[in-house]
UniProtKB/TrEMBL annotation:
This protein's name: AhpD family alkylhydroperoxidase
Residues annotated as domain Carboxymuconolactone decarboxylase-like: 48-110
Statement: the UniProt record of this protein carries the keyword Oxidoreductase: yes
InterPro entries: AhpD-like, CMD-like
Amino acid sequence: MSAPAPRIAPGGRREIGLVNTVLVRVAGAVIGREVPHIFTTLARHRGLFRRWLIFAGGLMPGGTLARAETELAILRVAANTGCDYEWDHHERIGRRAGLTAEEIARVRAEETIGESWRGRKGLVLRAADALHADGAIGEELWDELAAAFDERELIELCLLVGHYEMLAMTLNSLRVPLDPPPSPSGGGLRGRLRLLAGRGGAR
């Protein structure tokens, strides 16, 4: 079965402008895609795209959470919302951040996060589920999170999950098409930016 047509098609330079065209290529280099459809679609709203990109970059790759934890949260959001575009991107980014193929598969397969997920990873996944289901983190889980994460990380985790829930709603509603497979990793600017994207954020 073919994918449904996008409701708003990805734009070219005429639609998104010169500045956004450059930003799209740089941002694509960070995540290893030539011209990601998420960027060329959202960039049709030119000014809003640039402001969103700054905020999004502050969470990923510029956040304070460990990159593997960030990617677990994003993958769980993608699984909970049925967002194939988000999953396609972050399955690959998650592997670069150190997640195993088994961990990634379990994020999507497990309806409930059980005790097999230990430590901070399990807490991140449970927080993502609580925010998705209830719109808030309950007292018991919050106490567990507060014992394992500092204040900055707690704020960031809530914003991270909320942001990717919002993004999943947008991607699903606009029917942003999946990107073609990424080209092999190269050197130069792309290689350096992709290396940066694979590192943990500053503590």
